[in-house]
Amino acid sequence: MLSQALQFFFSGLTSGAIYALAAIGFTIIYNSSGVINFAQGEFIMVGGVVAVMLTDAGVPLPLAIAIAVAVAGIVGLLLEKLAIEPAGNAEVVTLIIITIGASIFIQGVVQVVFGKGQRALPPFTGDKPILFGSASLLPQSLWMIGTGALIVLMLAWFFGRTRLGKAVLATAHNRLAAQLVGINTRHVLAVSFVLSALVGGVAGVVSAPITLTSYDTGIMVGLKGFVAATLGGLGSGAGAVVGGLILGLMEALVAGYVSSAYKDAVPFVLIILILFFMPRGLFGERVTERV
Amino acid sequence: MSLLAVEALSKSFGGVHAVQDLSFEIEQGKIHSIIGPNGAGKTTVFNLLTGLYKPSTGRVVFDGEEVTGRDAHELARRGMSRTFQNLQICFNMSAVENVMVGAHLRLDQRLLGCMLRLPAVKRGDTRCRDEAVELMHFAGVGKYAGAEAHAMPYGALKRLEIARALAARPRLLLLDEPAAGLNPTETHEIDELIQKVAASGTTVVLVEHDMRLVMGISDHILVLDYGRKLAEGSAREVRANPEVIAAYLGTLSESQER
Amino acid sequence: MLITAAVIALLPLALPNNYYYDVAIRIGMNAAMVVGLNLLIGYAGQISLGHAGFVGLGGYASAILTSRYGWPPVAAMLLAMACVGAIAFLVARPILRLRGHYLAMATLGLGIIIYMVLVNESSLTGGNDGMQVPPFTLFGATLANERAWYWATGAVLLVAIWVANNIVDSPLGRALRALHGSEVAAQVAGVDTTRYKVRVFVVSAVFASVVGSMMAHYVGFITPQVSGFFHSIELVTMVVVGGMASTYGAVVGAAILTMLPQVLSRFEGYEMIAFGAILMLTMIFLPRGLLPTIAARWRRS
Asked: Which chain A residues are within 8 Å of C99, Cβ to Cβ?
């Protein structure tokens, strides 16, 4: 009974870590540009797919991981430079469709290069489960949870301590004021896309051994990341992390105790219910519109 | 009897008191002004009266009925109408259509009638369009009757908003800085327009910085400072009030010098 | 309106065979649906990323009622409309209080939930494998071939355009456009903005339901994919590519995005790349959509 609950907790935490990383990616880009990047899931997918391709081609795992994350970062940079920047101050719907177009485009490219099949990355440190009573935890799960925690800490340091990080935050807060104090906000935009893509790439790499990867795995993770970000209140970094973990745990609990068929519906039911009662998510600020 | 009574109205935003313990009355058929330095809470008062903000405490009584916290569209139904300091024009529509929106409540808006374009809906719409054009002439923007809203200059848009507010045939019309950003000639025209509106029996409440305009046309003036009532009375009384002079003199003399 | 009728009447002269009829029918059906969705997105300015959910509900309601319960297709279609309208009405009020990305999120979630219900309730829907749908009959006559379907679709499209244009040019439509242009201005003019958003949401959901039913009968088969996220995106894209707040833009958008996959199928394997690229390029260079951009150019010269 207890070990079963522990088992669900482990699996919830594992997927929650990935959702949290996806949600952080959304949040970084949303804060600096106001864009909801529907291609966020593709960063994750690209990270996983590139790592798999390279290891299959005989590249040692650590090098493959590094290259895969870098490729994701480059995809993020290209997305910003080639699709978001030229669009200028387009309407929200337009920007949403641009990022969806980008998402389809990236999937198309990967499908051509990688094929349609599903493949897995070898686990980083073996696949012998660690036992806690009768509950077990894959070493790769530890990698996922640990990496997630590490990234959160690194981002907190980046935004709290570094000049560039503060510039990004300032731009998020008030773009015009940031420009006036000499921050290159265009540069900041590019930085935030790259950063978000790097986070996505890492998430893709560490999760690829467990979730498998193919050209179309990005959509669902991306959408769930969006749910997690919204759950926490768009724009809140801590909210994104908490939102992601809640999502992962809820999913695992429903899958375990209620119905595994409807596991994927959990995030969406949850978010709709929450928005019904809290139109700005759990931690979203209350704003009064100025007229 | 007063048309509108405000009792101990307060509104705070996250600990900041924008309006505090404010009471005043608006009398039927007169021109009232609310003045005060920037940030005194004038626009907040308008937003509270018209239902865009919900008051933290206090009561608003309109035409003998308590309406505190009602939604904006309900207050419109009861006869309130307003313009905005920073224009709220629908730039996705033509000028006439903007004015026609003002007449919304008097038209047949039932779904089926609109879907099938029943003759009654069509007739009502045609009449409404004619009236809207007339109102635009009344407000002095008749020459833009065929224009798109986004093609109109700032001064004309201010008056287009007044025309839209009048299209509702309000009993209480609240004008938020109708002369802001206008040159002296345009200000003078707005002055005349407001007097015409008041003469037709509509009660007017004005938030305005142009002191010459305010002092010239107001029957009653309410002075706000830091969200509180500083003084009220006729133009002469307010001008002679030492507290008003102390708090406000700088701004007052500046704008009179203009 | 007359031009559209003329195009529909004369188009068969240019359609050499059933394949082209089939494409024309699909365009017509999508156009009718997108004309409705444009009322919500283009005119009222409220995004829906889950509209395919209503297409799926309409289609499956027709499919289930006719094939499992032996209902006449017209009755099934009407009941589907009523049910979809009722469901849309129930969820609309809480959902449409939301704005911007939160609204996008909630509608997206709604669509995905509907999709998952259709996949998982396989005893009723056949699950991922889909289900057969009997042909459409009306007063004993069956819409048996492409030509019959073509005229039926044309008629439905004309009615859809007529109704949409009526709504746009009515007090209701002005209220919708006003709340898009300035929500507070609409409110102080007496527009109960939430109520109007709900109304247009329901209307566009019913449009989607009708076309969902028709498509199910026309194709003779239905799978949960009709309500999938990607289909929702396709519908929104049709609205935006053609031109927001333009009924004929919606028709053009539907035509382009229905034909695009047919054209792109020649580039086997590269369809997604081409589709994504076209989507991005159109939105970057013609953010207002095709028809309004062309109209603006034409007016200037």
From this structure: 279
Contacts of B72 in chain A (CB under 8 A): none
| Residue A229 located in a structural domain | no
Q: How far is C180 from chain B (nearest CA, A)?
A: 8
Phi, psi of A50 (to 5 degrees): -65, -40
Tell me, rounded to whole angstroms, the distance of Cα A164 from its chain centroid. Answer: 21
> Roughly what angle, to the nearest 10 degrees, separates helices C146-168 and C247-264?
140
pTM of the entire structure? 0.91
Give the DSSP letter of residue B35.
Answer: E
Cα–Cα distance for residue pair B200/B205, rounded to 1 Å: 15
The alpha carbon of residue A286 is apart from the nearest alpha carbon of chain B, in Å, by 10
Distance CA C193, CA A278 (A): 19
Torsion (CA) C134, C138, C143, C149 in degrees, nearest 10: -110
The encoded tokens of residue A39 equal 């291609």
Identify whether C25 is part of a domain: yes
Q: Alpha-carbon distance A121 to A65, whole Å?
A: 10
Question: Domain range holding A101?
Answer: 2-216
Q: Identify which of A98, A261, A264 has the shortest CB distance to residue C280.
A: A98
How far is the CA of C228 from the CAs of A202, C52, C216, in angstroms? 28, 6, 15
- pLDDT tier, A196 (very low <50, low <70, confident <90, very high otherwise): very high
Q: Token pair of A226, please?
A: 């969006």
Say if A238 falls within a structural domain: no
* Domain of C15, in residue numbers: 2-226
Q: Which residue of B has its CA nearest to C200?
A: B111
Q: Which residue ranges make up each domain of chain B?
A: 1-79+170-258, 90-169
Residue A282 lies in a domain: no
Residue C132 lies in a domain: yes
Cα of A128 to nearest chain C Cα, Å: 34
- Residue of B80, B89, B111 to mutate when probing chain C, most C C-beta within 10 A: B111
Digit-coded pLDDT (tens) for C164-216: 999 999 999 999 999 999 999 999 999 999 999 999 999 999 999 999 999 99
Of C97, C184, C287, the CB nearest to A90: C287
* pLDDT tens profile B38-74: 888 899 999 999 999 999 999 999 999 999 999 999 9
Give the residue from C127, C152, C168 showing the smallest Cα distance to C36: C168
Is residue C200 in a domain? yes
Q: Is residue A243 part of a domain?
A: no
Report yes or no: C289 and C240 within 8 Å, Cβ to Cβ: yes
Say if C258 falls within a structural domain.
no
**Which two structure tokens, joined as six digits, stand for B86?**
């920073």
Q: Does domain B1-79+170-258 have CATH number 1.10.1740.10?
A: no
Q: Look at chain C and report how many structural domains it folds into.
A: 1
- Rounded CA-CA distance B90/B101 in Å is 10
CA–CA separation, C71 vs C83, rounded Å? Answer: 15
Note the ipTM here: 0.90
